[in-house]
Amino acid sequence: MDSSVEVSIEKLDDVAFEKEGQPFDLLQTKHHLNKAASLSDGSVDLWKTLRVWAELTRQDPSLPGRTRFALVTTGPAPDGSAAQLLRPAMVDSPPRDISLAHEMLMAAAEASTNKELKKAIEVFTGLPPAQRESLLSAVQVLDGYPLISDLEAVIEKQIVMIAPSGKVGLARQQLEGWWWPRVCAILQSAKPGVIAVTEVEQKLDDIRDSLKRDALPLDMEGVEPPATELDALNEMPFVRQLREVGIGKTRLEYAKRDYYRAFTQRSQWIRQSLLFDGEMSRFEGVLIEEWQPRFAQMCDGLPSNCDDSEIRNAGLSLYAWVEVEARFPFRSIINRFLNVGSFHMLANDLRVGWHRDYETMFSKQTEGA
C-alpha cells in the first residue's frame, strides 16, 4: 500500500483510507455474534449503510467516482439478492450487475413497511436515478467475514512472514497491543485522528526485529507499576535489606519499580517460551560472580571495631554500584531495569546482599516471618 495513506476511524465513516486528506475507501462494518443476520433486500444493515453513503453522495456527487464504498459484514449476502450482485467481481460469484441491483433495491424500498428504514429509504430514493446508480457502482459488499472471535487466526495468517517459526502468535499480540490503544485514543478524542500506514509498517518492522532469535521484546521498559503492586513489596527481603543500609525513600521506590519490571518481564518471557534452557540461571550466575569480589572487598575494608553507620555506608556504596554501573548483557540486551531488578530478585533470596551481615540478619528475619 502507498506509504502516504492514512487510516481514520469514525471520521468520514466507520473506517476510511485517505490520501492527502481525501478518502478513496470508505468502510461500513457490521458485526453479529452469529452469521444468521443476512443482507436481504430489506436488511436494516444494508439500508442504514446506504443512507450514510447516500448522504455523502448528496453533499458531493463526485465522491462515488473516486471512492470505494465497502460494506464489511459477518452476515451473508443471500443468493439472488441485490447485495450479492454488489460483491466484488469473483470467479465463484454471479457477475456484478449494478442496474439489476438498483431495480431490486427500488422495488424493496417501495414495498417496505419497516418504519426503522423509512429515513434511509427516503435519503437513498431521494437521489436522482443517475446518482443512485453511480453510488451503487462504487459499492462493494464484502460479506461472510470472520467473527471477532476468529480474528486471531486471520491476523496471524496475514503476518506469518514477519515472525520466526513458532512466534507468529507473539507477533500478533505485540501488534494488537500497539493497535488497540491507538484506536481507543482516536475513538475517545474530540477531534478524529488518523493512523498513517507508515506507522503500521514501522511497527511491523520493529516486531520482526524484536523477534529475531537473539532478540527479546522489552515490554516493561518505561512501564509505571500500579501503586498497589509496589505497596505489596514493602516487606519483601530485598526491601528490608535496602532499609537496613539506610537507602532513601525515593531510591527505595526506584528499587521496587525495577524489581516489578524485571520480575514481570522475566515472567512474560517464560510464558511466551522465549528463553533457552538455563539461560536465566547463567545470567544470574554472572551477576552473582560480579557481586562477590565487590562484596568481599567491602568487607575487607571494614575494621573489626567499626560501628553500624560505617557498615551501612559501605553497603550504600556497594548498592550504588548496582544502581549506576552494573550493566551486564542478557543475550543481546543491556538494560538497566533488567540488571538492577534481577539483583533485587537475588537479594530477595539472600543470594546477594548489601549489609556486611545480611545473611545472618535476614535469614533470622525470614525464619521469624
Overview of this protein structure:
The protein has 369 residues and is of the alpha/beta class. It has 15 helices and 6 strands.
Which structural category do the helix and sheet elements fall into? alpha/beta
How many β strands by DSSP?
6
What's the story with the biggest beta sheet? 6 strands, mixed
Instruction: Show unreliable segments.
Output: none
Strand content: 5-15%
SSE sequence, one letter per element: EEEHEHHHHEHHEHHHHHHHH
Distance between the termini: 62 Å
Spatial strand order of the main sheet: 5-4-3-2-1-6
Shape, per Cα inertia axes: elongated
Overall average residue pLDDT: 86
- As a whole number of angstroms, the C-alpha radius of gyration is 31 Å
Count of DSSP H/I helices: 15
What characteristics describe this protein?
6 strands; 369 residues
Topology:
Layout lengths: L4 E5 L5 E5 L2 E9 L13 H16 L8 E6 L8 H4 L12 H14 L6 H8 L3 H9 L1 E4 L8 H9 L8 H21 L5 E3 H14 L16 H5 L5 H8 L4 H23 L7 H22 L7 H17 L11 H13 L9 H11 L1
Parallel strand pairs: 3-4, 4-5
Antiparallel strand pairs: 1-2, 1-6, 2-3
Helix pairs in contact: 1-4, 3-5, 6-7, 7-8, 10-14, 11-14
Structure at a glance:
The protein has about 375 residues and is α/β, with parallel strands linked by helices. It has helices at about 45-60, 80-85, 100-110, 120-125, 130-135, 150-160, 170-190, 195-210, 225-230, 235-245, 250-270, 280-300, 310-325, 335-350, 360-369, and strands at about 5-10, 15-20, 20-30, 70-75, 140, 195.
